[in-house]
Amino acid sequence: KPDTVLQIEDVLHVVCSKEDAKKLAIVVGEMSDVDVRKIKSLLTARPLLLTQKQVVGKSIEELNLSERYGISITRIHRAGLDLVAHPHIELQFGDRLTVVGEESAIQKVALELGDSLKQLHHPNLPALFLGIVLGVFLGSIPFKLPGVALPVKLGLAGGPLIVAIILARVGKIGPIIFYLPENTNLFLRELGITLFLAGVGLGAGGQFVETLLHGAGLYWIFLGAVITFVPLFVGALVARFIFKMNFMTLCGLLAGSMTDPPALSYANQLADSDAPSVTYASVYPLVMFLRIVTAQLLVIFLARV
Questions:
Q1: Cβ partners under 8 Å of residue 245, min gap 6
Q2: In the Cβ-directed half-sphere of 232, how many Cα atoms lie within 13 Å?
């Protein structure tokens, strides 16, 4: 608890990054070989799912579970990432909280947090379609940039993307919670990739062979290959050898930088973690926004030449 007084020879089980653990050891004392999880105790650790709508958006400090039930939240698993449970972090629907305390107290906390797997897997369709409608509306609004004669639009790709980021940050509006279950997320992701590739094939397949054999198809393919390979290769070298980025994170970064869902799908098949998806999701929104706006600006500027 926050008011617990530490004594000499206490063994502390801390949850943090390895770097912070080394810094803490300098202040507290030396590292211990004792594994407190293997010691028989009244304390137990359990993961609990946050599925209670009334708790969404509240911070750990606001819930005050430590004072009311004598339990501690040690970590939060959200969207493939483990977060340290500091007092001011806001809880979101679907968070998996690791709580430590007596079993009777944990059961009371479970009732307060919800801990309902059935509710977690229930698709929230009103929130999904509300986001799509707002995204289409935003994408259809023209806006002007300084020095550009014609207005530009975010379109059907950029509009829903910006709205989705905003709604995910907000978390909920009244009774509507903007959370997409993992199984629904994976289904829509794979379906979207399939429809995207099918649309590209149907749109370009009719004239592909004729353009390749009789037109300037080979020339365009060569230029496309150069434009695709050179930035990826240079970016991969810089990220790997200068910023020391690990391979799976780098795969997600490169896939996101080219807004390439098939590359992400292949990286996810190779990875045992969500590292590629997390990096992809971090890079993809900015790159997609730049693609939409930059392409329209190039058309406007080149039309003047």
A1: 239, 253
A2: 18
Cα distances from 104 to residues 71, 82, 113, 116, 197, in angstroms, run 10, 26, 15, 18, 52
CA dihedral for 75, 78, 80, 86, sign (positive or negative): negative
Per-residue pLDDT of the chain (305 residues; tens, 9 = 90+): 778 899 999 998 888 888 888 899 999 998 888 888 788 888 888 999 999 988 888 999 999 898 899 899 999 988 777 888 888 998 988 899 999 999 999 999 999 999 988 887 777 788 888 999 999 999 899 888 777 777 888 888 788 888 988 888 888 888 888 887 777 777 887 788 788 778 888 887 877 777 777 778 788 888 989 988 999 999 999 999 999 888 888 998 998 888 887 788 788 888 777 778 888 888 888 888 888 788 878 887 777 76
What Å distances lie between residue 187 and 48, 145, 183, 282, CA to CA? Answer: 25, 37, 6, 20
What are the backbone angles phi and psi of residue 153, rounded to the nearest 5°?
Answer: -130, 150
DSSP string for residues in 175-240: TEE----HHHHHHHHHHHHHHHHHHHHHHHHHHHHHHHHHSSHHHHHHHHHHHHHHHHHHHHHIII
Nearest to 24 by CA among 13, 34, 33: 13
Ramachandran quadrant class, 71 (left: phi over 0; alpha: psi -120 to 50; beta: rest) = beta
Residue 261 CA neighbour count, 13 Å, CB half: 15
Exposure string for 93-114, b = 16+ CB within 10 A, e = fewer: bbbebbbbbeeebbeebbebbb
Q: Report the run of H or E that residue 99 belongs to, with start and end.
A: strand 96-102
